[in-house]
Amino acid sequence: MHIKIKLNFDIISLLKEYLSVLRNSHESISVSHLRGLSFHQHYIIFQWCVNVMLHNSPLSHEFESGLSDTEEARAKESAGYLARRDLFASGLESERIEHKSRRTVMRESAERISLSKRIHENEEYHKRLNEDSLMHTPEFVIKPRSHTVWEKQCVRLHCTISGWPEPRVVWYKNNVSIDPMAKPGKYKVVSSYSVHSLEINKCDFDDTAQYRVSAMNSKGETSAFASVVVKSRFEMNHPKLFLMRTLNVIAPSLPVKTSDADAEIAGAPGAPLDVHSLDANKDYVIVSWKQPAVDGGSPILGYFVDRCEVGVTHWVQCNDTPVKFARFPVTGLVEGRSYVFRVRAVNKVGMSHPSRVSEPVAAMDPADRTRKGTSAPWTGQIIVTEEEPVEGVVPGRPRDLSVIEATKNYVVLSWKPPGDKGHEGVMYYVEKCVSGTDSWQRVNTEIPVRSPRFALFDLAEGKSYRFRVRCCNSAGVGEPSEPTEATTVGDKLDIPSAPGRVVPTRNTDTSVVVSWEASRDAKELVGYYIESSIAGSNAWEPCNNKPVKGTRFICHGLTTGESYVFRVRAVNAAGISEFSQESEAIKVKAAIASPTPPYGITVLECVRDSMVLAWKQPTFIGGADITGYFVDYREVIGGVPGKWHEANIKAVSERAYRVSELKENMLYQFQVRAANMAGVGIPSLPSETFKCEEWTIAVPGPPHDLQVQEVRKDSLVLLWKPPVYQGRDAVNGYYIDIKEADADFEMWRGVNEKATHKTFMTDLKEGESYVFRVRAQNKAGVGKASDPTEPVEAVTKPGTAEIVVDVDDDGVISLNFECSNLTADSKFVWSKNYMEMTEPERMTLETKGNKSKAIFKTPSEEDLGIYSCFVTHTDGASASYTLSEETLKELLKVSHDHKFPIIPLKTELAVELLEKGRVRFWLQAEKISANGKVEYVFNDNMIHQGEKYKMNFDKNTGVIEMFMESLGKEDEGTFTFQLQDGKATNQSSLVLIGDVFKQLQKESEFQKKEWIRKQGPHFVEYLGYEVTPECCVRLKCKVANMKKDSVALWYKDGREIKVNEKLDFSEGVLTLEIAQISKKDAGIYEVVLKDDRGKDTSTLNLTDQGFKDLMNQVFSVIANSSTPLKIQSTEEGIRLYTFVSYYNDELHVTWHHKDAAIAFTERIKSGVVGEQLWLQISEPTEKDKGKYAIEFFDGKGGLRRTVELAGQGEETHDHIRHAPNLAVCYRARVAGGLPDVVTIQEGKSLNLTCDIWGEPVPEVTWLKNEREMVSNDHYILKFDSGKFASFTITCVNTSDSGKYSILVKNKYGTESGDFTVSVFLPDEEPGKKK
Question: Labelling 32: which of 4, 97, 751, 1300 has CA 20 to 30 A away?
Answer without folding.
Answer: 97
